[in-house]
Specification:
Structural class: alpha+beta
Order of helices and strands: HHEEEHEEEEH
Strand content: 25-35%
Helix content: 25-40%
Shape: globular
Number of strands: 7
Strand order of the largest sheet: 1-2-3-7-6-5-4
C-alpha cells in the first residue's frame, strides 16, 4: 500500500514538472500593452465591464430598428442582447459585440466558414463588413474597427415574415452610433 502511494506521488510530481517546461511562441506584452493590430491599448482594469451595453440608449436602439419599438435588455455578458417588440418592425432581437482584440479579418474568416455572405462597406470612413446569412432577409450584421482597438458589431434579427425595414441599414446605424459615442 505504502509503495503504491510513493509511486503515485512520484508520478504526480513528474507530471507537474513536465507541464511547466513548455515554451510559448509570440511576443510578451505588459498588462495594458498594445495589441499587434491597430496598436490600441487594452483596458485591464475592468472598470468599464459591461458598460458597452449602455453605449447606445434603449430609446436610440428603438428608433433605429423601428419607430415605436419597445426595447428591453435580455442578456449582458460577452455580448449584449435586447428583445425588440411592437412598433413598425414587429419583434426580434438586437445584439452588440465588442471584442477588444478582434479584427475584421478574423470576422470575415469565421463568417466565410459559416457560409455567410460578407461584403465590404464603409462606416464613417472605415472599412467595415456587412454580413448576411444565406436566404435570410430578416437579419444582418455590421462590423467595424472600434474607436481604440478591436472591433464592434451589431446584429439585427427581425422575426421571420414580419414587416420591417432593412436589417443591414439598422445594424449599420447602430454601429455608427456606437463609434460616435465611444470616442
Amino acid at each position: 500500500m505504502r509503495k503504491s502511494a510513493v509511486v503515485l506521488a512520484v508520478l504526480a510530481v513528474t507530471a507537474a514538472l513536465g507541464g511547466c517546461g513548455k515554451t510559448v511562441d509570440g511576443t510578451a506584452l505588459p498588462a495594458g500593452g498594445t495589441t499587434s493590430e491597430g496598436g490600441g491599448r487594452i483596458n485591464t482594469n475592468f472598470d468599464k465591464l459591461l458598460r458597452e451595453c449602455e453605449v447606445v440608449s434603449l430609446e436610440d436602439i428603438g428608433k433605429v430598428v423601428g419607430e415605436g419599438t419597445y426595447v428591453s435588455p435580455s442578456f449582458n455578458g460577452a455580448v449584449c442582447m435586447w428583445d425588440l417588440e411592437g412598433g413598425t418592425a414587429g419583434s426580434g432581437m438586437a445584439t452588440l459585440s465588442w471584442y477588444e482584440e478582434g479584427s475584421l479579418a478574423n470576422e470575415k474568416t469565421n463568417n466565410d466558414r459559416l457560409g455567410y455572405v460578407t461584403n465590404d462597406i464603409n462606416v464613417q470612413g472605415r472599412r467595415s463588413l456587412e454580413v448576411r446569412r444565406p436566404n435570410d432577409a430578416d437579419s444582418c450584421g455590421v462590423f467595424a474597427p472600434a474607436a481604440d482597438a478591436g472591433i464592434v458589431g451589431w446584429w439585427v434579427n427581425y422575426r421571420s415574415g414580419s414587416s420591417h425595414g432593412d436589417p443591414c441599414a439598422a445594424a449599420g446605424k447602430l454601429v455608427e452610433l456606437t463609434l460616435n459615442l465611444a470616442r
